[in-house]
Write a structure and sequence with these properties.
By secondary structure, the chain is α+β, with helices and mostly antiparallel strands. It folds into three domains: 140 residues, no CATH class; 59 residues, no CATH class; 113 residues, 23S rRNA-intervening sequence (de novo design (two linked rop proteins)), CATH 1.20.1440. Helix content is 48%, strand content 21%. The chain is built from nine helices and nine strands. The chain has a nine-stranded mixed beta sheet. A hairpin with a 5-residue loop joins strand 2 and strand 3. It is elongated, with a radius of gyration of 25 Å. 26% of the residues are buried.
């Protein structure tokens, strides 16, 4: 069950100007300090790369909410948008029953809705949805395209499922811990306590992975500095796949096929757009792109097989689709040149 906090919200802000990280502060009626949000993941397309400030013109107390709501929310982003359309009834709630008894259709109009969803270590799923807030949106520091938003939604779903699984493990482990010891706990009790600590540490490591991803981005930029954009993308894709596969990239079957496919893509594009000023014929580049697109099809097939045992390959498959579409666009561009 979600905690819904829209009525008690006084105002706040959500900031996704850093890719992969969403931060926020939300003032709640009855709480001494604003909620602090530190979340892994990006907002949807309208909010990605921006800061959103919002004010509730008519906050209402929710004392039962204040009792359970924690001040610090570390977790993952769900769906965050300020442009969702919802039905808004044009009759007061006390007249709903009368309309239903008389089988009259309740009149409504469509209104813009701010919808912020996240999953935290402390409170699980939290939702803020409202139609009457005053909103102020900054300019975009970076943007998601349509394909990028689809990938972001998939990434958010995978991260949320993984995160909630970790929290479930932690709660299950905590349920076995005894808190009413008179004397010192024995080794078996300490094993239970350490299991709780291990699951919480794993959740904390999962939430801090964006830092490692930022370091990886810096490494790619450094090693591929000045290279053609497709070569950079292919290098990034190959690095992500090999990182995910680990030693299993040498395996026979789908894992080995995936490693060979992304390796071929990078090597081919590196040959078509070599380092330096040497310019090759468009016909050669198009032929290389056609072969690399075929390699993408092979990589996608491998991901389809591997996804049955590891959800992480769903995200890699999305990356291969983005790579393939970029090469198709480049093929059209070269043919029209």
């Amino acid at each position: 069950m979600a905690l819904r906090i829209d009525k008690a919200v006084v105002g706040g802000w959500i900031d996704n100007t850093t890719p992969g990280v969403t931060r926020g502060g939300i003032e709640v009626l009855g709480m001494k300090r604003p909620l602090e949000l530190v979340l892994r993941g990006n907002c949807l397309r309208d909010l990605a790369g921006t800061r959103l400030d919002f004010v509730n013109p008519d906050p209402q107390p929710q004392p039962e909410l204040v009792e359970v709501l924690h001040g610090l929310h570390r977790g993952v982003v769900g769906d965050m948008t300020a442009s969702r359309k919802v039905k808004f009834p044009l009759v007061p709630p006390e007249e709903f029953e009368e309309y239903l008894e008389q089988k009259k259709e309740i009149p409504f109009d469509w209104r813009n809705c701010i919808s912020l969803e996240w999953y935290s270590l402390t409170n699980g799923r939290v939702v803020l949805e409202a139609t009457g807030f005053e909103l102020k949106l900054s300019a975009h520091h970076w943007e998601l395209d349509v394909a990028g938003e689809a990938k972001q939604q998939a990434d958010n779903r995978i991260a949320m499922e993984h995160f909630m699984q970790l929290i479930s493990y932690a709660n299950e482990a905590e349920s076995h811990v005894k808190l009413d010891f008179v004397d010192q706990a024995d080794e078996f009790e300490w094993e239970k306590r350490l299991r709780v600590r291990d699951t919480l540490e794993e959740a904390a490591m999962f939430l801090s992975q964006h830092q490692a991803e930022e370091e990886f981005d810096e490494l790619v930029d450094e090693q591929m500095q000045g290279r053609f954009s497709l070569v950079k993308r292919a290098y990034r894709l190959q690095s992500e796949v090999l990182f995910h596969l680990g030693n299993s990239f040498l395996d026979h079957g789908a894992r080995g096929d995936l490693a060979l496919a992304v390796g071929y893509i990078f090597d081919s594009l590196d040959e078509a757009w070599p380092e330096g000023d040497r310019e090759l014929e468009n016909g050669f580049k198009i032929a290389i792109l056609k072969r690399s697109i075929d390699a993408c099809v092979s990589a996608i097939a491998s991901c389809n097989t591997l996804e049955l045992e590891d959800d992480g390959f769903e995200a890699l498959r999305s990356d291969v689709f983005v790579m393939r579409d970029a090469m198709i666009d480049m093929t059209h561009e070269l043919r029209n040149d």
